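Cast an eye over this sequence plus tokens and walk me through the fold:

***
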Amino acid sequence: MKPNWNIRIAMAVLAVLIAFRPGVGGAGHEQKPVGDKLEVLFVVDETLSMSALDYAGVRSRLEGVRQDLTDITRALPDAHIGLIGFGHDAKVDLAFTDSRAAVQRAVQRVTREPMMAGTGTVMDRPLDLTRTVLADAKKQHPDRRFVVVFLSDGENTRKGAHQRSFAPLAKYIDDGAVLGYGTSAGGRMPTGGEPPWTFVRDQSTGSIALSHVDEGNLRKIAKQLGVDYAYRNGTGSLTPWAAALAQHGSSSSRDGNEDVELYWVLALLLAGLALVELRLDVLAWREAKEVAR
């Protein structure tokens, strides 16, 4: 009996297909984006002192804030972003969202509060609102990681005011930073409008008032929150830091189900053909044995 070449060719084809481990269900599935498990809340000081012109030379502190916000959000394109601004009061300027258009608009709107709105600054002004926002978000998304970034010069200007501790927020926070702006030498604060400016004056002396960064207070706030402190003076980007956050908050699994492998079906077919081929070989051997008699 001659060998059945159709069966042998079919077996060879099946062996090649099995080597490619075919499957279904993978088409259209993409890796989850890096940083998709992050909720990032910015808490931004928008008081009069944040308009002082001592960031990176003669730029406004708030210019530095907007640049840092832009760098962080660009490095976290898939995180949910929220923003609280505080001056004479605290307000939610942006509820948590993954819309980058909304985030960009919120960052562009980060400006100093009106000249006459201030009644003296205490850094704990956003404390209660921040706790409420974080607690509500934690209830809604207990599986997500929460990052808080506090951006300020740390300067308390209300006489006799006591700054409450930020420690109650620590239990809601997985990571974050306190970023400081301004100089110890101090910066002048424009009264508003475009250059040439007039500057805010000290009512007690009549001379131009200077605002100074309070790094000691900012470091204290960072310690209470359980995060790092970084001084910002216009040198160095926050992109690497934000990228590290994204790596810690990423998910590498696929959306939906994994591919269903089908190579085992081909393996069964190959085994079946192998049995057929074996049976034919046995029959051929018996036939040859009978002829030999």
In short: Helices lie at 5-19, 61-75, 100-108, 127-140, 215-225, 239-248, 263-292.
